[in-house]
Amino acid sequence: MATKPLQLLSFMLNIVFSINYKLRHEYLKKILIPFFLVLLLNIPSLSLNIAHADEENYWKQNVNVFNFSCTDGDIDCWIDERNALEKLPLVEYAPLKASEVNKKHHICVSFPHLKDSYWVGVAYGIISEGRRLKQKITLFEAGGYTNLATQLNQVDDCLTNNGEALIIGPISSNGNAKQIDLIRAKGIPVVVLVTGINTEVDANSLQSFVNMGYTSCKWVADQEKLNDGKTNIVWFPGPPGAGWSIASHQGCLSALEGTNIRILETNWGDTGKAIQLQLVEETLLNHTSGSEPDFKYIVGTGTTIEAAVGALRARKLGNKIKLVSTYYTPGIDMFIKRGLISMAPSDQMISQATIAVDQAVRLLEGKNMATSGRPEFNNTGRITEHVQQQILIVTPDISDQFNSSTTLAPKGWSPIFSVD
Asked: Whole-model pTM above 0.85?
């Protein structure tokens, strides 16, 4: 918290009067009293500098606010026409200043994994905002989307050790639901980010992956709309059972409805690099044996597309098959700048994380939501906050203009698992 100008003024005056009273030597009085008088004259500037240092990392961002918050667990909320992307208001999100926070809280943060750079970016947002707001953060990761039991145990352990709030990217939209119900029954607020959940929570900071899948597949359809024939793609939506990958799949199917794009094959799988590379290799083995590949595009997760770059190069298919990701990573950023990937959308995952921390602190301190909240879906009577970042489409021709500060962690940054 910044030092108050009046406190500084009182302190300095006391020193001056004390010196004047106690010092008998005229030489010392002539030196010290002018020195402190100069300090007094500079108190306003000094106070402003202290306040600036206290809030040097303060940020604001424009976000979309859901007209009806999808915080009651009903998946129909995501596809309700009132929450269509073009109908969502754009609002400036202004987080708390550190000086507005009353105390340090212990916030537990749970990720499915940190195996890819997407979640490393989310971790960066959590840690940086926890530090800015002077909160205690305990971050843990379950090791993969197949490790639901691990995530459940990690959440229990953290909350047992005096955790006061939970920020979670659930492994399973259904599998995590019962535990979250029990946590909220104890009065512990739950904020969901990146991946959705099919039960009630207190706030959402997550992009609709319906929109992410839709954006990527719609882009492909737009590129091929003048093509008289059918264009085949192979589709890699992500882990089976994860809320975000199911939503991405729904969005893609919706975007391709009535177009000349045909999904030749759909491959579900964990987003570990080895798993996605294996899926890509199997697809190439089955569909590129002839003189021409059976498909024109690989569309899928960031890990899928990163793996596909090398796989296509090894088979000299880079000029015959195009790559489109459903989200952005540092690897995607590097390859897209080299022209090896055709398109990738960013859901600004760092911003999702910073907002989630701000939401958790507001809930813990009973403060109003930054966007004031909206009625919850299904007329539950609750007013909750559900915000999402704007989707940024990046292609090779505009990649140099892309500001990645809300998407990618700084180069060389490694995950930190606690802030105290």
From this structure: no
Residue-by-residue pLDDT tens, the chain, 420 positions: 344 444 444 544 455 445 454 445 555 455 545 544 444 455 454 444 444 445 678 999 999 999 999 999 998 998 899 998 889 999 999 999 999 999 999 999 999 999 888 899 999 999 999 999 999 999 999 999 999 999 999 999 999 999 999 999 999 989 999 999 999 999 999 999 998 899 999 999 998 888 999 999 999 999 999 998 999 999 999 999 787 899 899 999 999 999 999 999 999 999 889 999 999 999 999 999 877 899 999 999 999 999 999 999 999 999 999 999 999 999 999 999 999 999 999 999 999 999 999 999 999 999 999 999 999 999 999 999 999 999 999 999 999 999 999 999 998 898 889 898
What's phi and psi for 165, nearest 5 deg? -150, 160
